[in-house]
Prior knowledge:
Largest sheet: 5 strands, parallel
Strand order of the largest sheet: 4-7-3-8-9
InterPro entries: P-loop_NTPase (IPR027417)
Keywords: Plasmid
Organism: Acidovorax carolinensis
Number of domains: 1
Radius of gyration: 16 Å
CATH class: Alpha Beta
Pfam families: AAA_33
Order of helices and strands: EEHEHEEEHEHEHE
Helix content: 25-40%
CATH superfamily: P-loop containing nucleotide triphosphate hydrolases
CATH topology: Rossmann fold
Number of helices: 5
Strand content: 15-25%
Structural class: alpha/beta
Protein name: Shikimate kinase
Amino acid sequence: MEFVEHHAALSWQPADQAICSRQHLIALNPRMPSTSTPCLGELGAKLVVIRGLPGSGKSTLARRLAREFGYMHFENDMYFEGEAGYEYRPKNVKAAQRWCWAGVSNGLLAGGRVVVSNVFTRVSHMKSFFALTDNHIVVRCTANYGTIHDVPKDVIAAMQCAWEPFSRELEYSNGS
């Protein structure tokens, strides 16, 4: 993994291991300089924007930040979750985006720390979130766990082709 802006190698491990111990990270990844940027939970960002293709671990990482560091967590997919489970409706995508943005905005206005995870193929998709606070970081998930929402392979391929790089992002692959 690489934190592009500071060129410090980072490595995170599965949920049974802390993502907050620099010594532990160094032990797992000897190439990591001892003076490198601290791990994600120690960065103290008000807003963490997580992006990646379907099945890359975005939601898992966001839930972990919420559980271990007290971040409020929002993503468009939450809009489609109900008592009957996940029911995606393409006609409601704009409403899901508005709901997600409002949750992030309200959380930050209330003084909280927020994590938002969505595909965000284009940098422009993240800009409205960047406008909410200067204290943000971007994490790109790169693992391939397979999509839990059965997103067709051709749709994922189209997302990958449309992917726009962002120079100031951490890369997270959870050891995969």
